[in-house]
Structures are given as structure tokens and as C-alpha cells.
Amino acid sequence: MPATSDHSARTAGYDNALFKSFKEHCHGTRVDTKTTVLYMLREEYPEYHVTETTKGLVSLLEFAEAGKAVAIHDSNRESFNATRVWRSVGERVEKKLHPGVLRDEFRFSRFQYIWEGKEFVVYYVEWKDMLDNPQRMFYVLHPRNDANIVDGHCTDTDELLLAVGKWTSLLHEEIWVFDNTHWEKSKELYKSIKGSSWDDVILDPEMKKNIIEDVQRFFDNQGLYSQFAVPWKRGIIFHGVPGNGKTVSIKALMSSLYDRVDHIPSLYVKTFRDRCNGEEYSIRQIFERARLSAPCLLIFEDLDSLVGDDVRSYFLNEVDGLESNEGILMIGSTNHLDRLDPAISKRPSRFDRKYHFKLPGEEQRGDYAEYWRKKLLKNDTIDFPEELCPIIAKLTDGFSFAYLKELFVMALLSLVRGHKGDDYEMIEAENEPETANEEKAACEANPSCKEEEEQTDTCQCAKTCNTCKKPLPQETAPEKLTMPTVDIPEHLVDNTLLKVIRQQIRILHAEMDNTKEEQLPGGNIMASGKGNLFAAQMQVLRMRRVQCC
């Protein structure tokens, strides 16, 4: 690291007085901190040209950390404000072994900044005015001379900002994430999606193929859109019961687009919430960044929760592109398509393609079991023959992919803890369906039973009947979920994994049956309690059974 230059030493004397002025300002009545800081710097550094720029667009410190420049922090404790923060490093086991690192999260700090042989003084200042969003600004100072000031701007500073701005606009193993009113690059999200692959996504093959082609062809065919005079923009909606592949498909898309030769960036929106400037400001920030990043994938997860009635019109104006949205492919996901305003879900040229993620059928459940079998091929302690996959598929009727994952994780954890199939008392549970069937058969064979069924002592007119004196019918309890009867080949009857899986299916069935469901306006199901994740899919399953009967 180079020693502090004479140029840097000359500026050091200004610093204590400047920081003192800034602290006095922060403790007093103020209207515009941004302008105040700019004038404070100009007053304290009359021999320097001062340029103000936004951290979000010009990340000077990250540029230096990447080795593109040198930033030397003025460590005089009287001249900066920062929070000392501990962060872990490494992966998994390494995190436990490594003591971690300490970093400074600055609010006011000064740096000697060297880029391509040119020296600058850079201040980073962060504050929050009342009823305003946090501000994060850089102030770049460079000595004035007759040659480098053109139209009031410093040419040396502008060259630096152009280089840093271009670098900042690109992703470096990161994903853009919008949260807390501003965009930030997330290396953590990048790491989580980088290992994602379409090989890990179990869907109907035709639907999976269509999704991949739909997205890849959009980014491949800019010229075709132009040839037919069609705006190069699209919107897609993923909808369906929770836990059936929407999120994992989005992650696979993000990973596949990043792996292209022409990397396609992904922008992920967490929330529009902005208590200071309103959600309209956030929506504006989101689409401004998307236009700068285009071509790009813009993701709105839980779209129905993001776009409320109060901001719908503003959101649609941005979607329709009062400014150009060329090269932007939007994907919105929702568990409740019916809650989306028709202006979003049914209007052509907005979100004009929809993919329904349904509960997996028997074939997909078998594919998912096969996916886990292949993951466990190197594990010699688990006997998982290929013949088990179609059996598990039949036993898990009505399970979502999330529920199937829970089933395998619970079963494997049970084996890890040392449980064996013989540890479970399964005989009584297995005989319950047979007992119920025997009682039903005996009842059907008894004529008096049949006559009682045909008689009714309750009103059959309507639920709001006022014409007869019979009591209104009482709602019956939902049907208890039972494991389907499946023929098990004799050589698999004693398979430990199968025994454990069957027991875990019973446990999960009991969890579903104990789920409390509340009917909301519009016919939607909201679940509370332990079975929250699976209530909606169980409602679908029960409706399916009613239709079949």
C-alpha cells in the first residue's frame, strides 16, 4: 500500500474542522443535508474541485476492492464515523473454524484515492433526514488547474466516474436485489442460485421445455422482434399452489441466463415498501434500474402481494413503458392468480403468458423419488432400489414437491438418528383402513342401515330455509387422509427405507388433518397453525376426491 503523498498531507489539516461542522449540522435544524455537505466541502477545500455522486451508481470503494484503484482510509479516529461489524467467512465447516473478519460500515469517512496515477480525495457520507430515505453519497475532490476544469466540471474526476460507473453497472458474481427502498448487489443470492440447474427441477416435461424455450428465445430474438415491429418486451406469470416448483424454476432460469455467453442479469424485487417517498418512488427506481440493465430478467415474486390497489395504476404505467422497456422480460409469481387484478393478469402485452404449477401427478412424483435415489447412489448404508420409486409415487397421492422434499428429509434424518423400520409400531395403523372398509361393507349388507340412510331429519331445501321446520344440516368434518393401498412386492416388504417413508407419510397426513383452515372472501384458503404450508394443496386434494366420488 503506497505511503500518504504530500498532496494527501496538505489536505489533512482541513479534516477535523470539516468533521466538526458536519456533526454540528447533524445536531441542528436542517433542510437539505446533501447541499449543505457540498458547500461545507467547497468552503473547507477552496483549492479543490468538488464533485458529488451517488454510491448506488458509482461504487468507488467496491471498485478499489476489486483491484481497479487504491483507496487508503484516513484512520484518524477524530475524522470518521463507522460501525465496526463482524462477518463470518468461508463455507459450512470453514465458517466454524475461521474467526471471521471485522469491517467498517462508514457514515462519514475520508480516503486518499489513486486511479491511473491520479490522486483524489474521496469523502463518503451517509445520513437520513427526517421523512426521507437514507442518503449515501461520495464527494470526489481533485486539485483545480486551468487545464482540467471545463464547463464547471473536472475532466479528471469525470474520467474516474465514467470508469467506475460502467464497472458498477455490471454484475460481478452478484444479483441485483431491491429492498429497503434501494438496489443492492447480493453475492449471497448469487451463490444460492449458481448451483441451481434445470436438472434439479421436476416438472411436466412439456411445460418445462416451453418455459426454457420461452425465456431463451426472447433474449435470442431481438432482431426478430424488430423485423416484425413488435416491442422487445414480455411478461410471464408463474401461478399455482405453494410448494410446486415456482421458486426453484425461477432460480434455474436465473442461473441459466447468467451462464449464457452474453450474461443476462437478473433483478429481484423483494418489496415496494417506502414509508418516506411512497411505493410509487420504489416502482420508479425499479424500472429505472431495469432499463439501465436491459436486456435483463426482472422478477416480482408474490406479485399479488406487491401490487396493491393504491399503486396498481402507477405500476401498470411503468410496465406499459411510457419510457422504453426494450429488452426487459418480467416474471411474476403468485400463489393466488384470482387475487391479481385482470388489468395485470389478462391484459395482452403485459403478463401475456401464464404457466400453472399444479400438484405433481404420479409420474412427476415418481421422477422426484428417482431424483432422490440418484442423489443417494453413493450412500452404501441406504437400500434404495429403483423399484421403490413408483411405489413411493403411489403412496404420496396429493403431495406437493415441497411436501415430497419434507418427506425424504424426514425419512433420511430418521435413518441418520439410527431408527430402523422395525422401530415403528405399524400394524395397528395399517389395519385401520381395513377395519373401516369392513364396517362400511357390513353396513351396506344390512337393509335397515340402508333405510336409515334414505331417511332424513334435516332440511334439504336450502341453507337459509324458512319454509319447513326441520333443523338445518350440520357441516361434516373433512375426510381424514389415509394412505392409498399399494401392492408391495414381497422382496420389498422389509425394506427399511420404505418402512420409514410409510411411517413419515402417516405423520404428515396427521399434520394435514390437524391444519386449521379459514375460508376467506373470494373462496381462497388461508392456513394457520402447524400445517400452514400445505393447507391449500390439501383443499385441492379433497375437492379432487369429492369430484371423483
From TrEMBL:
SUPFAM superfamilies: P-loop containing nucleoside triphosphate hydrolases. It comes from the Eukaryota. GO terms for cellular component: nucleus; proteasome complex. Residues 232-361 form the AAA+ ATPase domain. GO terms for molecular function: ATP binding; ATP hydrolysis activity; preribosome binding; RNA binding. InterPro entries: AAA+_ATPase, AAA_ATPase_domain, ATPase_AAA_core, P-loop_NTPase. Pfam families: AAA. GO terms for biological process: ribosome biogenesis. Transmembrane segments: none annotated. Keywords: Proteasome. This is Proteasome-activating nucleotidase. It comes from Lojkania enalia.
